[in-house]
Here is the input.
Amino acid sequence: MHDFQKLKSDVLREFEEVIGKIDESSITELADMILASQKTFVMGVGRSMLVCKAFAKRLSHLKVCAHVVGETVTPPIGKGDLLIACSSSGETMTTVGISKLARQYGGKTASITCDAGSTLCKISDMSILIPRLAGPSGSVLPMAGLFEQALFIILDCAAILIKERTGITEEEMRTQHANLE
Here is the structure.
């Protein structure tokens, strides 16, 4: 049984190790792809999808036309659009299948995964790799928790780059915030 202080230290150490190994230029490339796209679509499965939904919301605050794959009001993807697909394994059937469809319909694809050799990575126009921890035990966090938390930070960093490039202020972002809450 872990006590909270030790658990907190372990999680923060793991997080720092993983985040420190991510290629920063890939986050810049993702931000550039988002800014160059007409519409940006995000997708993942399970907890990765929850992170993707949070990112789509942040993109909408930044006046980016963003959609979550699978929502009833999601429009079609086409040329000039971008799909960001997130999967720890890079082999999630739904995520891989949707990425293939996006390419078929002329969209560009970006993936965020842990495995450079994965199907998702191989079919993407660009990829951000979140490294797995070495060793037999992996992370202290259950399942893909470390991936999901790193994913949240990476996507928030991309949002900051978009905010800086567009010059959108916090006040302007607030005007895009939902008011039916």
Observations:
- Helices lie at 4-20, 24-36, 47-61, 93-104, 119-122, 145-166, 170-175.
- The mean pLDDT is 92.
- Residues 145-166 form the longest helix (22 residues).
